Write the structure tokens for this entry.
Amino acid sequence: MSSAIADLSLAELQQRFRNGDISPLEAMEDLLEEIPRRDALTRGYNSVDAEAALAAAEAADPGLPLGGLPIAIKDNINVVGQPCTCSSNILTGTYTSPYDATVIKRLCAAGAIPVGRTNLDEFAMGSSTENSANHTTKNPWDLDRIPGGSSGGSAAVVAGRSALAALGSDTGGSIRQPAALCGCVGVKPTYGRVSRYGLVAFASSLDQIGPLTRTTTDAALLLNAICGLDPADSTSLPEAVPDFTTDLGRDIKGLRIGLPREYFVDGMHSGVRSAVDKAIAQLQSLGAKIVDVSLPHSDYAVATYYIIATAEASSNLARFDGIRYGHRSPDPANLLDCYRKSREEGFGDEVKRRIILGTYVLSSGYYDAYYLKAQKVRTLIRRDFEEAFRHCDVIASATSPTPAFRVGEKTDDPLQMYLADIFTIANNLAGICGISIPCGFAEAGESRLPVGLQLQGKALDETTLLRVAHAYEQSTDWHRQLPPTVSGAHRPPAASC
Ligand code: GLN
């Protein structure tokens, strides 16, 4: 495949603008021409508004921090005048965003241009994009496999070189897990770092927006633009936002990297385990000190998450009632029937499962036994991290216990699907920050699939996270490797998928 603008990192394209090698409009034209070709097999995009992107590119100012840089946006973040489908039938074709999310306002103020809406599991509930009402996005490294989820579209377009960078959202791993499975960088910021205003809410005490990029430098550039206090989100934090690029390039000598013993257990894919072990040895050779830590309540994280997240989802999704937003059933007998039918017709199975589960754990009689108990366990999980961070600066592990699985492999077994996030979920419950970076490949069947290294940091310490991630990245070339869909070596997907 010929080289194009989308092969560049954000920092590289920015340099070309500043050298006067190419204008933002020319870059945008090139990208828009490439998207249909490059995204044809993976289908990471739900839609692309070329006209709006070209108009913005024509007016772009390359002097601004992100001037003229195109960013793909997960289809659950509002961009004024564009559809925001959440990959759900309840919003598809019936909802156009009347306003910009705060992250979009900030990106645009920094000069960036939102381009395209990326696929996700319906309302961000899932780990594979198979719960999308639109289509299943495929992994650019193997078209028979899922890209991860729920930000699978964002990861696939970045890894498949049909976007330079993207925004995703992470409630229990939805940025980090697809980043790991597609071989890109994904940052889940500290809860409260990034405004959630204009992100369609799934579980409000867990949701965070963050970048998916090819390099840690690009992730830092996007974080610089999107972080910060927002009066429109009462949970956004007033803390000053540092320049996240300043510590990139600093060595990591003497930094303590904690290995939680609960995250290095039997049952992990052997290829994932060996890539992560090698990455840790590499960090050690760069001067980091490896220490053992413990997160003793890890076993409860998935169960706790599926009580709290579903409880919040059942409340958040009550707004989709056929009256105020989206799909309305055409022929209801009365108002109650309108609510019932609109929701029955509009929501997919996984969303219904979660609404039912969440309503159940909140119902009187069960509230104390489930929801209240889960909140208490959440506190214990948060304390585990606080204790661990007394002994280390950053915690390292695999991002996902396995590489990308096959399309259809886990769709009949929700529990297996939920376990895909076993290493990422506790981070959201604790409200700390995390990143996944490419750390090698695992053989699975005939495929060579990316593996992600997860680093977790103290609340508000994205700077150290990025410093360690960048030091590792600079000492490897995993992030430069091209998936077969880009190098031209892909096998056609199996006919059944
Ligand atoms: N896979 C998890 C879930 O289905 C996490 C999703 C997310 O982070 N949005 O809930």
Observations:
- The CA atoms of residues 221 and 245 lie 7 Å apart.
